Amino acid sequence: MKYLPLIIFTFFFVYQSTISQEKKEKASKKVYTTKYIDHDDPPLIDGKLEDKSWDMVNWEGDFIEHEPDENTEPTFQTQFKILYDSKYLYVGIRAFDSEPRKIEKRLSRRDGFAGDRVTIGIDSYYDKRTAFLFTVTAAGVKGDEFVSDNGDNVDDSWNPIWYTKTNIDKFGWTAELKIPLSQLRFGKSNEQVWGLQFSRQIFRKDELSVWNRIPRDVAGWVSESGELLGLTNLQPQKQLEIQPFTVTQLSNYPKEDGNPFRDGSDFKLNGGLDAKIGISNDLTLDLTINPDFGQVEADPGAISLDGFQIFFDEKRPFFVENKNIFDYSFDNFSADNLFYSRRIGRSPQGYPNLAHNEYVDQPVNTTILGAAKFSGKTKNGWSIGILESITAKEYAEIDNNEERRDELVEPFTNYFVGRLQKDFNDRNSYIGGIFTATNRNIEGNLDFLRKSAYTGGMDFKHQWKDRKYYLQGNLILSHVEGSEESITNTQESLTHLFNRIDAGHVEVDPNRTSLSGTGGKVEFGKSSTGHWRYSGGLVWKSPELELNDIGFLRQADEIRQYARINYRSLKPFGKFRSIWAGFNMFTTYDFDGNFNRVQYQMGTEANLKNNWWVETGLIHKPRIYTNTILRGGPRYRFSRENISFFFFGTDSRKKIRFRTGYVYSQAKQNNFSYLSLQTGFTYQPTNALSISFYPEFERNPNKTQYVTETSYNGIPRYINAEIDQQTLSASLRLNYTINPNLTIQYYGQPYISRGTYKNFNYVLDPVAEDLNDRINLFNNNQISFNNLSDAYLIDENLDGFTDYEINKPDFSYVQFRSNLVIRWEYIPGSEIYLVWSQGVTGSGDPSEHLFRSLDEQIIGQEKDNTFLIKATYRFMM
């Protein structure tokens, strides 16, 4: 805590030195009044704006430039009209352009957001925090997003049913939109007031203009919307959508002699149901029964040598939609969250005990029997989210060539998440809470799993002075229960390490059957007005905090304090369209009082007037201690580290564009280093076709890479070695859009990571400042390699007898994943997917170079292939 006075002084100094420079120019709020039209005489949605019904209302325009030169006249003006009836909202748009031939008509899949486009934002809750966005491009491609947290969170997985057409004429281009009121959410009121915003992107000029001005220095943009008036006597639109689906899947793969589960092919026919039910006009119930996510893109390749779990983004549509409502992240420096939806349907955590000559059919994922989400936001500011999901028992099938048996590898499990927030103070503040529960029906040999896990939390945010300043925070409580085995496993896991031999504040209690912990955050900052922003705060996670049953927690037992300050331009100047520069620092402690880490970082991002961009920065870590690297051994010190990074890229609007850069790290005494080289390009030969290729090479040598723990004369020995780890990966994407409703997409990624070890050593003084005092290197007389056992033999005392062995840790992990997806939205909301997934995972020879492994293990290997046809039909009632 010794840096807390420095943080407070920094805040005071920044405030005093910049307050005189900051003067907010409050933007006036525009108002548009719509009119009701007879339901029997709606405008025809053909993009031409020729229907007489449009004459009922006046054109509204007078857009103002937002980027790059805020609060100036845009190159071309934009106008709009809005009508409504009992079922729909109708929007007509006129985008003037003196050179119609130069209007960019790029095709893409839904939510591609490429080319000239116009977006309408509707804050139908009028909470100044959330909005429904509807985007149409000049080529007629639709985009739709749900925005929360005043624009900080954008969810493009929201796919409502609506209709649009566009047309290009001598004055520019026009668009018509027909939006069902059932796709919006609003409260009961005889006279509605909605937030309203329009924005227009002129692609070739990279210029964004808006209807209601949004100053560049505001805290968010939803709160800066204008108003839509004239909506009277709207009837609640109780939405009812049912979407059954069927899936046909054929898999073929290399046949494995003697293995009855790998006979060369499998065939499956499956089906399920998704539904969306409007409980009220602002609250919706989403259901899924036996969901299938076969069209979801595969995860990228990754390998972790530090033993921690790897965080992957959620891609499954049911869990992605409205995920912002359930979000409860509490640490700006990590992915830690009370709800990590990928726990639902996870890979089974058990594995059967196999005898010699037995084969197993191990499930890849746990079956989700059903899930339901009740979510929405009421007119008076209550945000509600409830999620319930049930996953099935999963059995591994075992065959010994005479008989078969089943063994339970994942129990029947119930997952629950409840989230609640309430806005107040004219929507400038909120207070909320969350509760999660995981309950497993533990049977058979699964006592190593926790029986139940509960977490709860409260969060708040208060903003004042027109959202210039804010104070926010949260509190977390966790409680897990289970057998003595499961709670002992929890205490000894890498997340907690109660068994760390030099820990004075925790110890393993093998008789415990429960564990309770706390965590939380408090942060103060300035988020708007002028060029400067700053913030600072404190995050803590007690040693007993456990979230990993339905949440994500990398490491407990940490107290982190941090501060940030940054500057950003508000107007183009010199060669720059915009520039951002910042500095941040943090320190960490554990609950035993150990001062573990200090980090300072400064960086800058700049967009040039030719639309190229540059990002660069420096990081200095003068103090690095870790409680986890020795996996229960003592606290360990790394040598101080310096990091630099530099990236730049070309104009993203061009038909061919590229980016490249590096990250380089170097520790004192060459303890370790890291080099990442990243480059790639995107080529768009036509408006319908784009090809991108982005390779990356990493090299990460380390003289003290942890290998294993052993025993020497009853004394723990923590064995390290010098590793040379090299990783090569590349992502290839191809997108071809036949029309906005028919697309072909391909994604492929080879991934190769190789590590070779030498110069084995053991930890001598784990916290010594000098690297040579920290470890002791085995000499040639102490270590030898046995080819028969594929292990290193250690004769530490040179008495001619082996004291212990170290299995050879060299590795070469090779993986290839690809997806080819043809998607046809044959009517709005109903789709057919044709999917070809291909992959292979194997081990190469660590002594060979990476490209040899690429040739032998990926190009030269027969791969697993899955062919899938998925059809959905969306009924609206």
What's this model, at a glance?
The protein contains six helices and 47 strands. It is mostly beta strands and 877 residues long.
Task: Write the SSE topology.
Blueprint (H helix, E strand, L loop, with lengths): L3 H15 L12 E3 L1 E2 L27 E4 L10 E7 L3 E9 L20 E7 L7 E7 L4 E7 L4 E3 L7 E7 L2 E9 L10 E12 L4 E4 L15 E7 L7 E13 L12 E14 L4 E7 L27 H4 L2 H4 L32 E3 L6 E10 L4 E10 L2 E6 L4 E7 L2 E12 L4 E12 L11 E13 L4 E13 L2 H9 L21 E13 L5 E10 L16 E11 L7 E14 L5 E14 L4 E14 L9 E3 L2 E9 L6 E12 L5 E11 L5 E24 L2 E25 L2 E22 L7 H4 E3 L5 E4 L4 E4 L9 E4 L3 E17 L2 E14 L6 H10 L4 E9 L2 E2 L1
Parallel strand pairs: 1-14, 2-4
Antiparallel strand pairs: 3-13, 4-5, 5-11, 6-7, 6-12, 7-8, 8-9, 10-11, 12-13, 12-14, 15-16, 15-46, 15-47, 16-17, 17-19, 18-21, 19-20, 20-23, 21-22, 23-24, 24-25, 25-26, 26-27, 27-28, 28-29, 29-30, 30-31, 31-32, 32-33, 32-34, 34-35, 35-36, 36-37, 37-38, 38-39, 39-40, 39-44, 41-42, 42-43, 44-45, ...
